[in-house]
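Tokens as discussed.
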């Protein structure tokens, strides 16, 4: 899973200096199989103590999916000098 690379999944409603529910960490699942896999992976990471604290990432049902507007596509490629791009790339 990508979430453990892009941010600290142990922070509840926060990513670095940004705080609020809009910064929550979540995995959205579309099937019970996806939910099972996500939960098993989070459990595995917690049991292995990969992070210093328990993972706070929520595992929630995907209610709807909205594709990004064209101008949002390719952000890492277009802005590779940005901090996020350097951390994730």
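Sequence:
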């Amino acid at each position: 899973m990508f979430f453990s690379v892009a941010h600290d999944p142990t922070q509840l409603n926060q990513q670095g200096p940004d705080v609020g529910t809009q910064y929550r960490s979540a995995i959205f699942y579309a099937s019970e199989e996806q939910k099972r896999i996500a939960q098993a992976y989070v459990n595995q990471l917690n049991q292995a103590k990969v992070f210093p604290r328990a993972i706070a990432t929520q595992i929630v049902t995907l209610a709807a999916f909205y594709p990004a507007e064209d101008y949002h596509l390719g952000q890492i490629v277009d802005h590779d000098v940005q901090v996020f791009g350097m951390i994730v790339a």
